[in-house]
Amino acid sequence: MTFSALVLDIEGTVCPISFVKETLFPYFLQKVDSLPRSEDTHIQSLLQQFKTDDVVDQIRSLVSRDVKDPILKELQGLVWQHGYASGEITAPVYADAVDFIEKTDKPVYIYSSGSVKAQKLLFQYVKSQQETIDLRPRIQNYYDINTSGIKTDAESYVRIAKDIGLPAGDILFLSDNSLELKAAQHAGFQVRLAIRPGNLPVDDQSRYSIITDFSVL
Ligand SMILES: [Mg+2]
């Protein structure tokens, strides 16, 4: 298989699918009570936008109902930023993926439903053995729902190929989600299904060539 560029999904592909659910979201909830006392003026101005006396209660309610509130999303991004910067959070990118991203001579792009801002934070604070490394210099560009559309729509991949500036057939997309692979394939991309510890079983797994370790690339 020859390709000239790669587009990588994040959760379930380069890091465990549980990272967001079991690390990032609990971290945010753990910090909610202390937010009204935060010295970050950006956090304070976001809290004021909720327009309620009990902002902690309001936030907990939005989170428990899984409301996609833009102020909440921005607030979560800031809280995670503090968490990464303080060393309380590091991104558990798989060692083989870190190694590959560091060494490949092919340009690497990221496409995730998490915001571009959240993606950059994740790659800025990657856990690698005993240290935290910044993989951002190795990543050409980042795509999310706002820049490119939803991940199960073939049109999104057409836009991404156009932005990369290569024919779709020269780009390899890796993801743990077969619906995303199907959309990318539809747009002409080469695709491989990532199977990683903790990933959910994929129904139509046999339709795809599988990757369990980036060292084979
Ligand atoms: Mg995924």
Automatic annotation (TrEMBL):
Subcellular location: Cytoplasm; Nucleus
Molecular function (Gene Ontology), one example: magnesium ion binding
Superkingdom, taxonomy of origin: Eukaryota
Main location: cytoplasm
HAMAP family, per database record: Salvage_MtnC_euk (MF_03117)
PANTHER family attached to this UniProt entry: ENOLASE-PHOSPHATASE E1
Function recorded in the entry: Bifunctional enzyme that catalyzes the enolization of 2,3-diketo-5-methylthiopentyl-1-phosphate (DK-MTP-1-P) into the intermediate 2-hydroxy-3-keto-5-methylthiopentenyl-1-phosphate (HK-MTPenyl-1-P), which is then dephosphorylated to form the acireductone 1,2-dihydroxy-3-keto-5-methylthiopentene (DHK-MTPene).
Record text on subunit structure and interactions: Monomer.
Protein name stated in the entry: Enolase-phosphatase E1
